[in-house]
Amino acid sequence: MKKFNINEYVFIKLTEKGAQVLANDHNKWVGKMLGNRNMDYYLSNRDENGFYKMQFWCFINNFGELMQAGAGGYFEDNNIYFKEADLKTTVQVSVASKVQ
After folding, report:
1. Of 23, 32, 80, 96, which has the fewest beta carbons less than 10 angstroms from its beta carbon?
2. Measuring CA to CA, which residue among 15, 18, 37 is closest to residue 26?
3. CA-CA distance, 73 to 89, in Å (whole number)?
4. Which residue has the higher pLDDT, 1 or 53?
5. Which of 49, 63, 60 lies closest to 19 in space, CA to CA?
């Protein structure tokens, strides 16, 4: 098995719909103190390969309630990408293939 610390970063290919979720959340909680943001702020912070980087706990906080069957479009291809170095091996697990 591998473990992943929720403070590590994940990478998603953020869409306009996903960027709007992040902007809305920011504006709701800290917009009055730090100024409002729109989706362009988040889209412009993607890297040269189109990935947006955020800590995993933030990803869960922002998108967790939105993840359900039939919902989507917040990030391309429905994948979350991790850096290999952030996945730590913990325990070797053997899976028995016993069928009853």
Report:
1. 96
2. 37
3. 32
4. 53
5. 63
The residue ranges of every structural domain in the chain are 2-89
For residues 72 and 88, give the distance between their C-alpha atoms in angstroms, rounded to a whole number.
29
**Helix pair 16-29, 56-63: axis angle to 10 deg:** 90
Token pair, residue 21, equals 């979720």
CA 52 to chain centre: 8
pTM, whole model, 2 decimals? Answer: 0.80
pLDDT band at 100 (very low <50, low <70, confident <90, very high): low
3-state secondary structure of 55: strand
